[in-house]
Amino acid sequence: MDVRELDRRAVRASVDMVAKVTTEDLGRPTPCAGWTLADLLAHMTAQHRGFAAAAEGGGADLAVWQAEPLGAGAVSAYSGAAERVVTAFAEDGVLERAFALPEFGRGLTFPAAQAIGFHLIDYLVHGWDVAQSLGVEFIAEPELVEAAWPIAQAIPDDERRRRPGAAFQPSLAVPEDATRFDLILAMLGRSPRGHGVTVPQTWPPA
């Protein structure tokens, strides 16, 4: 399946989850160390805008990746940014482009399909982050988890994860009955069952 369709589904699921957020929720803690839900939504919104700009050829501009406080308009800002990135990824010829992603390294570009895969796993996991913050159930769509699995496996688990501001924390151990999605979360430094929400047991790990 086209990675853009898989990404669209992950983004739509995150939009549905963010739609549950109220202004009173914005101060809640999240699985992202030191971030409130307001901080997380600002990051998620900025990343959508940055990836949309990358798809349009403007990703090298660091300004397009900057997160800004969203205040009471966080949910509507997130929805608008999500729509923008989905539209940008759907443009004709986008899969033939190289995406500039300066957060991975200044001057680096990535094939479109690989870059969109990065975006896919980011929003699959961030949807879970939002659910954890709200204390509601998150159901990971099996096809999206399968698509995210090789991406998660390819992310280096080294000293860079211990640097301030690192995208992911060092990987964690998981119980023997961990699901494939549990494993992805743990590989990205999140405790799958450590925040009060049960992640559905959709299938056994490989």
How would you describe this protein?
By secondary structure, this protein is an all-alpha fold. It has one domain: Four Helix Bundle (Hemerythrin (Met), subunit A) (Up-down Bundle). 46% of the residues lie in helices and 3% in strands. It contains six helices and two strands. It has a two-stranded antiparallel sheet. Strand 1 and strand 2 (109-111) form a beta hairpin. Helix 5 (142-154) packs parallel to helix 6 (180-187). The two termini are 21 Å apart.
Task: Break the fold down into its secondary structure elements and pairings.
Layout: H1 3-18, H2 37-55, H3 74-89, E1 98-100, E2 109-111, H4 112-134, H5 142-154, H6 180-187
* Radius of gyration from the alpha-carbon trace, in angstroms: 16 Å
Helix content: 40-55%
Output mean pLDDT: 88
How many helices?
6
First and last CA, distance: 21 Å
CATH superfamily membership, which one? dinb family like domain
Order of strands across the main sheet: 1-2
Task: Tell the overall outline.
Answer: globular
Catalogue the unreliable spans: 195-206
Q: SSE order in H/E notation?
A: HHHEEHHH
Pfam families: MDMPI_N
Domain Mycothiol-dependent maleylpyruvate isomerase metal-binding: 8-131
GO molecular function, one term: metal ion binding
Protein name: TIGR03086 family protein
Key traits:
mainly alpha; disordered C terminus; two-stranded antiparallel sheet; 2 strands; 206 residues; Four Helix Bundle (Hemerythrin (Met), subunit A); 6 helices
